[in-house]
Amino acid sequence: MGEMTTKPQLKNLDALFGIDENFGITVVELPINSLIPYEPQPFKMYTEDERMGDLVESIKTHGVLTPILVRPKSTFYEILAGRHRTKGSELAGLKTVPSIILNNITDEQALAYVIETNLMQRSFSDMLHSEKAAVILLHHSKMFSQGKRNDIVEQLKNLEHIAHTQVSSSTFCQVEKRLRTHDKVAQEYGLSKETVARYLRISKLLPQLQEILDKGEMPFIAAVAISFLREKEQVLLVECLNNHPYSVDMKKADIMKEYSKSNKLNENNIMLILSGKLPPKSQKQSVFKFNKTTYDKYFTQDQSSEEVQSIIDAALEMYYRSKEDM
User: Fold this and answer.
1) 74: phi > 0 → left, psi -120 to 50 → alpha, else beta; which?
2) Cis check: omega of the bond before 40, within 30 degrees of 0
3) DSSP class of residue 79?
4) Whole-angstrom Cα distance, residue 141 to residue 106?
5) Where does 171-304 have alpha helices with state H?
6) Does pTM surpass 0.85?
7) Which architecture does CATH list for 15-166?
8) What gap in Å lies between CA 267 and CA 275, rounded to an integer?
9) Which of 50, 223, 241, 325 matches a 20 to 30 Å C-alpha distance to 254?
């Protein structure tokens, strides 16, 4: 089936879209060069050549089967749903993309469309840490009620249903999954309350630090500790990581957090902490001692204290990392 040539009306859309329900919404062809990405975009574009190649071939064969969702932005249109379809259309040689223009929606509503449409397309468990944090932050927000969210989910279901009426089920291959009904955040995604709290902390990281976390270059629990740093301290940390071959582990993150509490986390101290040259702040240390039975169970007398400490650090890091999935 080719590109849609008619402009079907989407009936019975409520005031959520800021229009009269009898007016309807028209699918229009918008020039690709009039479309701009939603910013700040919490979700990464997929980059697999094979996956994008399949989408391009689908568009060449069937056209864009599901209109993208946009909102007016200055003299352009901001893409709320359909970044991959837009890119695929461009690679397929198309000049326009079938679009539904959503007028008079707030920034909070726009973010909700971005997040809910991404939840349509893939599992929460498959998302990167920063993406999970964005989902949880929105669903935890008091500014965006469950009722408003349910309205948006229902409207997206209506849009999906209308798209199904335009094409046969055998060719409808550009939407990967159906929307699910949603419940409370922790129950909805099978997370503990502690993990939800940690993801809310991750949402406070600068995007550059979230990217480091997503790449697996910083432990999740260490990232949670770093999230307590002030924004200006996070900026200094990013600069140090960009300019030097350092990394952040749990121990360094905890030291930076302690220095931040006393307002002593400056550029010099960050450099010293990352290089391993600065000891923890002078404070009364609690000392834990193994009893002999436990020590003999896991260690031998010829192991150095440095080796024992290294094993304990690694074991604790594995333990706290496993708590992410609890």
Assistant:
1) left
2) yes
3) E
4) 15
5) 185-188, 193-202, 207-214, 220-226, 231-243, 250-261, 267-275, 292-298
6) no
7) Alpha-Beta Complex (3.90)
8) 12
9) 325
Where do runs of H (alpha helix) occur along 105-249? 107-121, 129-140, 146-166, 185-188, 193-202, 207-214, 220-226, 231-243
Report the largest interatomic distance among the alpha carbons of the chain, rounded to a whole angstrom: 82
Q: Which neighbouring-strand residues pair with 187? A: none
Give the residues across from 98 on adjacent strands: 29
Starting at the earlier edge strand, list the strands of the sheet with 27-31. 27-31, 96-101, 68-73, 76-81, 35-37
Contact call for residues 151 and 144 (beta carbons, < 8 A): no
Query: How far is it, in rounded angstroms, from Cα 54 to Cα 147?
Result: 37
Q: Are 314 and 308 in contact (CB under 8 A)?
A: no
Radius of gyration of the chain (CA): 25
Q: How do 96-101 and 68-73 pair as beta strands?
A: parallel
Q: Cβ atoms within 10 A of the Cβ of 167, count?
A: 17
Q: Render each residue's pLDDT in the chain as its tens digit; 326 residues.
A: 344 333 333 333 333 333 333 334 578 899 999 999 888 777 776 665 667 888 888 889 888 888 888 999 889 999 988 888 998 999 999 999 998 888 888 888 888 788 777 777 777 887 889 988 888 887 776 555 555 656 666 666 665 554 444 433 333 344 433 333 333 556 667 788 888 889 999 999 999 999 999 999 999 999 999 999 999 999 999 999 999 999 999 999 999 999 999 999 999 999 999 998 876 554 445 566 777 788 778 888 777 777 777 788 777 777 776 665 55
CA distance 23 to 68: 20
Each domain of the chain, given as residue ranges in start order, spans 15-166, 205-275, 292-325
Contacts (Cβ under 8 Å, ≥6 apart) of 171: 1, 62, 65
**Residue whose structure tokens are 């989408």:** 55
